[in-house]
Amino acid sequence: MKLSVLMPVYNERRTLREIVRRVLDQPVAGVDQVELIIVDDCSTDGSTEIVRQLQEEHPESIHVILLDQNQGKGNAIRLAIQAASGDIAIIQDADLEYSPEDYDIMLKPIISGVADVVYGSRFAARELRRMLYSRHTLANRFLTFLSNFFTNLNLTDIETCYKAFRVEVAKTIPIRSKRFGIEPEITAKFAKRKLRIYEVPISYHGRTYAEGKKITWKDGLQAIYVIIKYWLIDDMFQGDYGHKDLIDMEAAPKYTEWTLERTQPYMGNLVLEIGSGIGNNVRILMQYTDVVATEIEPVYLQVLRNAYFNTPGVAVFAWDATQAPPADLPTPDTILCSNVIEHIEDDQSVAFNADQILKQGGRMIFIVPRGENLYSTLDEAIAHVRRYDETRLRSLFTTLGYEIEEMFTLNKIGVLGWWYRGKLAKQQTIGRFGLKVFNVLVPLFKLIDPILPWKGLSLVIVARKPAAH
Question: Could you read off the pLDDT of 307-332 as tens digits, one per residue?
Answer without folding.
Answer: 787 789 999 999 999 999 999 999 99
